[in-house]
Write a structure and sequence with these properties.
Number of strands: 0
Order of helices and strands: HHHHH
Distance between the termini: 38 Å
CATH class: Mainly Alpha
Number of domains: 1
CATH superfamily: 23S rRNA-intervening sequence
Radius of gyration: 17 Å
Largest sheet: none
CATH topology: de novo design (two linked rop proteins)
Amino acid sequence: MGNFKDLWVWKEGIELAANIYEITKQKPFSNDYGLRNQIQRAVVSVSSNIAEGDERDSNRQSAHFFKIAKASNAEVITQLHIAYRVGYIDKSTLDKLELQAKKISSGLYKLIERRGGYDAKNMLKWFILSIFVPI
């Protein structure tokens, strides 16, 4: 803990952010202030939350921030699909950036697991409770 710049997933998050900023500079993406700003904020959140999580004092706190990073990464994937659907990026750009984001997601899953964020016994308890306890 505390060496976030050594984590490959942080480095990949920085690279993904640079790639997103590059495509959002180009028209017509650059003219869509809403989507452009949203995807930029989401992609910056990925590496920022990895850094914050790695600097936390406990594994539980670290895992919490890594989960936020993973969720922000899912936002980026969703926004890339929207950008493709409305014609801002082509299929090869979508595929390349989505693959990069999926590698980050996979790495974050492993990092969360290592920090105890996916405790199988606790997950099973919540699953069983959700079946038997009405909402």
